[in-house]
């Protein structure tokens, strides 16, 4: 990232790669998947049970996270086991995110446009919105 901040001209390829990575991390359900994978390998059906999401939804998230290089897939017979590809790097990224949130005044609440989006998503999945209300 230092490279992109030090240069005056934006590197389109690098910017696009960063955007794809941050898109992967911007979806709350994908973050929950990553949190579960931080405890070890899981199959899609395990994650379905842990997260209460539809199998097709978890499978799509796994494909996205695998495509981004955040998750590795390991075939074992008919099952596929998923694990974090770079657990130490993701841990450092989470720590940096916590520091940024603290530097921004410790505001842990989502901004208004996120709250509106999360309410729509929560209504579709039956989950609670960021304010703890059921949509």
Chain-wise SSE layout:
Blueprint (H helix, E strand, L loop, with lengths): L1 H5 L5 H14 L2 H10 L6 H8 L3 H13 L3 E6 L2 E6 L2 H17 L8 H14 L10
Antiparallel strand pairs: 1-2
Q: Could you explain how this protein is built, in words?
A:
It is a single chain. With 135 residues, the chain is mainly alpha-helical. It contains 7 helices and 2 strands; from the N terminus they run H-H-H-H-H-E-E-H-H. Strands 1-2 form a two-stranded antiparallel sheet. The longest helix is centred in the last third of the chain and has 17 residues, at 87-103. It is globular, with a radius of gyration of 17 Å.
Concise structural overview:
This protein is mainly alpha-helical and 135 residues long.
Number of strands: 2
Fraction of residues in helix: 55-70%
Strand order of the largest sheet: 1-2
The overall pLDDT, averaged over residues, is 81
State the main characteristics.
two-stranded antiparallel sheet; 135 residues; globular; mainly alpha; disordered C terminus
